[in-house]
DNA sequence: GTCTATACAGTGATAGAC
DNA sequence: GTCTATCACTGTATAGAC
């Protein structure tokens, strides 16, 4: 007979932690709030993450990184550039739920949490920009412009997340992404 | 004879608090860290801000709002639009220290701190966008484009802050602002 | 107006029963 | 693998001496 209570594996816990860190930030995500929202006791959490809250956040960041590597960066490096870039905008809108979900890496970059995860944060954005700039070059864009254009696109997504949350306006997020998508391939 | 110790007024404390909230975030800025960094005891802090940490953050947000109203929004509504827009970019670069200093309002928008200060956060960005869109219209830009262009500029500054901090690259911030300034008046 | 002392809930973390 | 109990510490907040 299977147990009535839900049993977790570490891999099941990470997505739950991700949403909590996204909503509350690193400092705001206290162990009791994590316990409260997941129903997982402190004992279990420390069983999965002996390094405590820092290991939890690191695991979340690693999973975010894997997701973007697989569904955004790799396609940008490998696939037809125009298709991969179109898929990037589509994936970004879906992943960030049209501004309803923030970018954890971007949020961590803003306060002192940055110090804890500096290289992870740096790599996430650096690889995004590199992959996008590479795709732009392959699509015929001069290398001299490609990097700045890529930076602008990545930065625009982060800004759209901030502004759409500040104004509580998901339509703004979609509109901004559409405009950036057009500008990226035309200008 | 004047006292050896520094005596503060409430108005002197607010800028100190601003930098601490910027660096640590709302949750990360604990009273002991505030005391430690400012040298002001808890008794004094609660004398100035009976409402505790929330009142401290509200006072900081109010001061930020006043600064932008005076040096950015009002000029955009009142002065020659081209000059006011040029001044906006210059002021933004100076205020945010080329990405070395974040936007507290934007940072608060990202996590649950948003709930505490929702209307303040909303107003800050809404008035910025309105003032900028108005200046663009006065400079001859079609009203149909002005709002989206204004949103894009405001969002771009927020994104540039995130990205320049993530990559620890102030040059990127300046570069991005230059590019956005050009695009705002040409496209 | 600022200090020290202190209240007491909440913090991350650990140990041991099951 | 999960629970309860508990640790030492830090959190916000208050009171009273000066």
Automatic annotation (TrEMBL), chains A, B:
InterPro entries associated with the record: Homeodomain-like_sf (IPR009057), HTH_TetR (IPR001647), Tet_transcr_reg_TetR-rel_C_sf (IPR036271), YxaF_TetR_C (IPR054156)
Q: Name one GO molecular function term.
A: DNA binding
Q: Which domain of life is it from?
A: Bacteria
Keyword Transcription assigned to the entry: answer is yes
The record's section on PROSITE patterns has: HTH_TETR_2 (PS50977)
Annotated keywords: DNA-binding, Transcription, Transcription regulation
The protein, known as = Transcriptional regulator, TetR family
* Highest classification ranks of the organism: Bacteria, Pseudomonadati, Pseudomonadota, Alphaproteobacteria, Hyphomicrobiales
């Amino acid at each position: 007979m299977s147990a009535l209570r839900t049993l977790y594996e570490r891999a099941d816990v990470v997505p739950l932690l991700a949403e909590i860190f996204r909503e509350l930030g690193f400092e705001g995500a206290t162990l009791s709030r994590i316990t409260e929202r997941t129903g997982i006791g402190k004992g279990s959490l420390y069983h999965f993450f002996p390094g405590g809250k820092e290991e939890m956040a690191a695991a979340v960041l690693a999973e975010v990184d894997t997701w973007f590597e697989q569904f955004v960066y790799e396609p940008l490096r490998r696939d037809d550039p125009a298709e991969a870039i179109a898929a990037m905008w589509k994936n970004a809108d879906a992943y960030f739920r049209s501004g309803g979900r923030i970018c954890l890496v971007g949020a961590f970059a803003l306060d002192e949490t940055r110090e804890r995860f500096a290289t992870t944060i740096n790599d996430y954005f650096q690889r995004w920009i590199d992959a996008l700039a590479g795709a732009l070059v392959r699509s015929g864009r001069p290398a001299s412009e490609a990097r700045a254009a890529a930076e602008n696109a990545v930065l625009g997504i982060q800004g759209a997340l901030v502004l759409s949350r500040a104004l509580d306006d998901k339509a703004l997020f979609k509109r901004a992404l559409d405009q950036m998508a057009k500008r990226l391939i035309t200008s």
